[in-house]
Every structure is written in C-alpha cells, then in structure tokens.
C-alpha cells in the first residue's frame, strides 16, 4: 500500500470511528425521542458517509452492510415511521458490526473475511416490512410479545403479527430464507 493510500485509509478509519461513536449515542437518543427528524437525518447522513467512503475504497462487504443500514434509515426517514427499541437494536447491531470491520481494516489494512450477510438480510427484511406496513396505513411497529428479546432475529416477524397478514407472511418468508442462508454459510465454513 503506497503512502497516499495509507493516508486515505487512516483518514477513513478515524472519520468512521468518530461517526460510529456519534451514531450509537444518536440512536439511543432517537429511541427516547422517536419523532426527532433532525436526529434521524444526522444518523442517516453519517451512515451514508461511511458507505460512500468504503465504496470508494473498495471495501465491498462493509459497503453492503452500510448500504443495508442506510436503506433502513432512509425508509424510516421517508415514511415517517416511528423508531422503536427493536429498530434501534437492529441498527445498533449493524453499527457494532460496522465498527468491528472498521477496526479490523485499521489494524490489517484490508477488509475482514467475516460474513455479515444474515445481518444484511435482517436489515433488508425490516426495510421491506416497514414499507408494507406503511402501505397498509401503519406508522409504527405494534407491541411485541413480552417474551421476545430485542436481539432476536424473529422479532421482526413477531412485530409483524399485528400487521396485515401479507406483510407478516412476507417477513416470515424472508427471515426463513435469511436463516437458511446463514446456516448454509456456517456449514460451508466448517
């Protein structure tokens, strides 16, 4: 890696790390103030910046993950959908994975081999679910069952249970496909 590339990489690592710290705090604040469109816009812009730069630097897996998080934030932003704890947890999972990838890149000057396709799919399912719910007249997730945990991949399907049946069926099918793909990838790595 030549000196100019190394400088660009170091700048990307520094800027992304700072943005990710801000994003985490902003997401937690957004959960407490779900109607704060200015805060939502700030989170969206920060994720957009990370995505664009990693695309420029050819970090394809990091770009795909960032793009999925950006799509979910964009859907929330464009539809006025209310952010809740489950959406924040999902977005924080995405930010944690991005943070880990950025740290690895900073240490090794290359993208990690770790596969985040299941998380990318969960973000995409949430984006499509919000779209279906908004088209059905819903602007927020229905309450989930008390036994559901925020980090569970099935929460999206649980939340969809009170939504129109078509949205729930689509979310369940997409989630099953994401879980099957993750299981196949795990088996292939063994």
Quick take:
The chain is an all-alpha fold and 190 residues long. The protein is 76% helix and 0% strand. Helix 1 packs antiparallel against helix 4, helix 3 runs antiparallel to helix 4 and helix 4 packs antiparallel against helix 5.
What is the overall shape? globular
Question: What about the largest sheet?
Answer: none
End-to-end separation in angstroms reads 32 Å
User: What is the typical, i.e. mean, pLDDT?
Assistant: 83
Q: Helical amount among residues, as a percent range?
A: over 70%
Count of helices? 7
Q: Please report the total strand number as a whole number.
A: 0
Sheet-strand content, in percent, reads: under 5%
Question: How large, in whole angstroms, is the Cα Rg?
Answer: 17 Å
* Category from helices, strands and their pairing: mainly alpha
Runs with pLDDT <50, length 5+? 145-168
- The string of secondary-structure elements, in order, is HHHHHHH
List the helices and strands and how they pair.
Layout: H1 3-32, H2 37-56, H3 60-79, H4 85-108, H5 117-135, H6 155-160, H7 165-189
Overview of the structural elements:
- The structure is a single chain.
- The chain has 190 residues and is mainly α.
- Helix content is 76%, strand content 0%.
- 32% of the residues are buried.
- Mean pLDDT is 83; it is low at 145-168.
């Amino acid at each position: 890696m030549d000196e100019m590339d190394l400088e660009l990489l170091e700048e990307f690592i520094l800027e992304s790390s700072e943005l990710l710290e801000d994003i985490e705090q902003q997401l937690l604040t957004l959960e407490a103030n779900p109607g704060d469109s200015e805060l939502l816009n700030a989170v969206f812009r920060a994720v957009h910046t990370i995505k664009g730069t990693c695309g420029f630097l050819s970090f394809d897996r990091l770009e795909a993950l960032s793009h999925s998080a950006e799509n979910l934030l964009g859907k929330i932003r464009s539809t006025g959908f209310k952010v809740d704890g489950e959406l924040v947890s999902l977005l924080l999972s995405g930010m944690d994975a991005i943070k880990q990838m950025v740290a690895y890149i900073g240490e090794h000057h290359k993208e990690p081999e770790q596969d985040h396709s299941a998380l990318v799919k969960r973000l995409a399912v949430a984006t499509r679910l919000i779209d279906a719910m908004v088209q059905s007249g819903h602007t927020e997730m229905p309450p989930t069952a008390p036994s559901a945990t925020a980090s569970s991949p099935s929460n999206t399907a649980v939340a969809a249970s009170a939504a129109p049946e078509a949205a729930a069926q689509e979310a369940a099918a997409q989630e099953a496909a994401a879980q099957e793909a993750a299981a196949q990838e795990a088996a292939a790595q063994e």
